[in-house]
Write a structure and sequence with these properties.
With 236 residues, this protein is α/β, with parallel strands linked by helices. The chain has a single domain, classed as FMN-linked oxidoreductases (TIM Barrel, Alpha-Beta Barrel). The protein contains nine helices and eight strands. Strands 1-2-3-4-5-6-7-8 form an eight-stranded parallel β-barrel, surrounded by six helices. α6 packs parallel to α7. The chain is globular, with a radius of gyration of 16 Å. It starts with a helix and ends in a 6-residue tail after the last helix.
Amino acid sequence: MQQKKLYDSLFKKEESGVIILFDPDRSYIDDTLRKIEKLNKNTMVKAYFVGSSFQILSSLDEYVKKIKENTDRPVIMFPSSHSQLSKYADAMLYMSLISGRNPHLLIGEQLKMVPFIVETGIEAISTGYILVDGGKITSVEFMSNTKPIPRDKAELVAYHAKAGELFGFDLIYLEAGSGALYHVPFDVIKKTSEFLDIPVIVGGGFTSLSDIENAIGSGAKHVVVGTAVEKNKLFV
């Protein structure tokens, strides 16, 4: 059985915080490294995700390698497909889109990732990925061809998450989508986290420190922030 060293240190300990998501297609490496220099000084920042809805960038390995060279925080791949993996990352989220009914994203892409995981030995953190309505059609909704769960259906979100836990996932990710108008509601976070024995992380639509703190107070282990950092509105 694969050891989950990074998972244990990042998600199982009591300390909560922020994970910064960098999209290689929307952030040039020089700009990313300038931001990381500032982010490294912030004790709230616990790790970096790297992922994209499209991944036009051909030199993904180089992008990840340069981030690794400029931080002591873990760098984790957040792939939307099997082509978005890098051997230079510390770990990867091995995600299944369990809120949707698209078999390609439930198991299809995951099968294509297996040879990479076996060959590299990268730590794969099995993650139940759940889309929650963020007030507009986001890239992940459009590209995944799935509908988000309505934001006023906390119990339905929690049941999907519990199904993921029963399937054996290590982690649940509640996602409103990049640039969402509204983040996942606090009552949804609270209901879901109280219903589970595994960690919950949440992302999409977080633009203020107070909302991040409230999400953590509602039970989120970590809050994922991307667009607000990309647009220099938070932490940088």
